Every structure is written in C-alpha cells, then in structure tokens.
Amino acid sequence: MPMVDIPTTRPSLLARLRDAGDHDAWGDFVSLYAPVIYRFARRHGLQDADAADLTQDVLRGVAGGIDRLDPDPRRGRFRGWLFTLAHRRLYDLQRRRRREAAGSGDPEVTRTLHEQPDRAEEERWERDLERERFHYAAEKVRPDFSETTWQAFWRTAVEGQSGREAAGALGLSVAAVYLARGRVMVRLKEQIARMTAEDRP
After folding, report:
1. CA separation for the pair 19, 25 (Å, rounded)
2. Closest of 136, 120, 162 to residue 6, by C-alpha
3. How many beta carbons lie within 10 A of that of residue 164, not counting itself?
4. How many CB atoms neighbour CB 147 within 10 A?
5. Confidence of residue 113 (pLDDT cuts 50, 70, 90)
6. What whole-number distance in Å separates Cα of residue 91 and Cα of residue 123?
7. Handedness of CA 134, 140, 141, 143 (dihedral sign)
C-alpha cells in the first residue's frame, strides 16, 4: 500500500457535480469512482458486462441524486453515501435475479448480499477507494518528474525497496534517492489535498 496519507472527496468537486454540464467534474468523478464500483460488483460475482452495467446504474443514481445530497456532515460522508447506493443497487439486482430463477423453476439460486452491508465490505470499499485516489493522483503528477526521479520514489515508497537497493538499480547515491522520493511525495500530497479536502458536499 502506498505510503501516502489519502484525504477525502473535495467539496468543490461535489458542488460542481450538481452542474450536469460540467464535463471536467464528471470526468474526474468517473475516473475516481467507476473503477471502485466496478471492482465492488466483480467481487460479488458479476460478470464483466453486468459489472459495467451496474457501474453505469450507480453513476446514473449519483447524477439523479446529487442535488438531494444533504451537506450536513452529521449525516455521513459522500463516499459512505456512494457505498450505500452501490450496495443497494447490487442487492436489488440480486434479489430480482433470485425471483426470476425461482419463477423459472431453476433450483440454482446464487448467494446474495444481506440487505445491510457488513463492516468488512465497507472497509474493502474504503481501501479500493484510497488505492484509486492514489493512482489517479500519481498519474497527474508523474509528468512533472524525470523517469529516474519517479522510479526513486516508486521503488522506495510503493514497492518497498530500500534506499540502497533503489540507488544501485538507478545509479544514484542513497541521498539522491531519498531527496527524489521526498520531492515526489510533496507534490503527490499537494495533488491529493487539492483533489480531496473533505468528504462532504
């Protein structure tokens, strides 16, 4: 897991999502959240096409519900709301499939979600989301650095190599590796902070 603190969803993005014509905001939102929703669906047994359909269904649900999202932080964070929405849509899909299977006389009924998600599932969702945010931010800042600088960061902060191992592979001094790593981490944290200040509208 990357050694970077991951803040939460920035309010400016959530506010901008209320404007259906803000294509940049929706592009950012889909890039961050669609892979998390898709992995959630696949983890619960949906095939690729069905998982993609569920992802689109959840994103449509966000588009339809963002205007009614309560900005009161006591009611919970946006990503918790999104997790609940994804869970509910998947639960509804599985319940429909169970009914159809029972109506067709097919004895094979797939295991379904409980109506209320369990804490372990929500924790997996949170880990997926943090991973996606990290990789999204990394893509944004990587062009700002030379390949050697980036590799010094990636090998030590993400892959877990020691400074000495990375230095040997990259032809740098150990000090230069840690200096490069520090420079990238500062920019990465700045990018993540801009992206994700608070997890509420």
Report:
1. 9
2. 136
3. 11
4. 10
5. low
6. 18
7. positive
